[in-house]
Amino acid sequence: MIDKHSHVPIYLQIERILTEQISQGILNPGDPIPSETGLAEQYQVSRMTARKAVDYLVRQGVVERQRGRGTFICHPTQELKMALPLDSHFAFSEVASKLNFPINNKVIHLEKVAAPDHVANELGIEPGTQVWYMKRLRLVGEVPFVFECSYMQAEPLFADLTIEDLNRSKYQYLLSKGQSVKGSKKQIKAELPSEEVRVLLGLKRDEPVLFARSIGLLASGVPFEISDIYYNQEHYTFTLNATR
């Protein structure tokens, strides 16, 4: 029953009723739920309130709208969640390997360009110096987890970088050149993604993404790469060890 005097918003009360019907087996995967008009009439609320309830369930991945057919209970899928420590530096492959799914890299773009001023400043090189510019999508199985746009030093250390190297492992490539990674400095915030990022990560429209600006450091302490990293936060939990 809906309690219109409750402090709980009505749309969340409707959401809770539908969620309980799913957990009790009254509604099952593949079943339709009432239309927004039907929910409005059933609970004597406005259609806007009914739509908010359905929108909430869609965002939670409980139901999905099918154009021209209605809204249906989703079939459960295996949840892929990765714990990412914010106070440590790990390669994506090191963290993702714990999920026991194949890790795939998809290089979308790779070319040498003249370093923009802000990149040259962060990398400690002259503006206009040739650097690698790359876009790479990181997947676990077929699920997109991370999209990164990076500028990386080219001459003289990494002049022969190839798409094949990036599809395998950037860090393995660095090791083959006698270099290793000391760590990184990151600034992290939530933001609304561009259309490119939204599509590549499979995000819903207007869904925020966790964004990190990262400066990678070689073992010598020299910065070698600046990256804009976009995390599909649906598949992440973030950890931080704090000391007093």
Walkthrough of the structure:
By secondary structure, the chain is of the alpha+beta class. It folds into two domains: 10-73, Winged helix-like DNA-binding domain superfamily/Winged helix DNA-binding domain (Arc Repressor Mutant, subunit A); 82-239, Chorismate lyase-like (Chorismate lyase, 3-Layer(aba) Sandwich). It is built from eight helices and ten strands. The strands form three sheets. It has a six-stranded antiparallel beta sheet. A hairpin with a 4-residue loop joins strand 8 (209-218) and strand 9 (223-231). The protein is elongated, with a radius of gyration of 23 Å. The mean pLDDT is 86.
For this structure, the CATH topology of the largest domain is Chorismate lyase
- First-last Cα distance: 48 Å
* Tally of helical runs: 8
The order of strands across the largest sheet is 4-5-6-9-8-7
Overall residue-averaged pLDDT value: 86
The assigned CATH architecture of the largest domain is 3-Layer(aba) Sandwich
Biggest β-sheet strands, sense, barrel: 6 strands, antiparallel
Helix content: 25-40%
Fourth-level CATH superfamily of the largest domain = Chorismate lyase-like
Q: Looking at the structure, what is the overall shape?
A: elongated
Structural class: alpha+beta
Output the radius of gyration.
23 Å
Q: Outline the low-pLDDT stretches.
A: none
Q: Give me the count of strands.
A: 10
Overall domain count: 2
State the CATH class of the largest domain.
Answer: Alpha Beta
Task: Please indicate the percent range of residues in DSSP E strands (runs of 2 or more).
Answer: 25-35%
> What is the N-to-C order of secondary-structure elements (H for helix, E for strand)?
HHHEEEHEHEEHHEHEEE
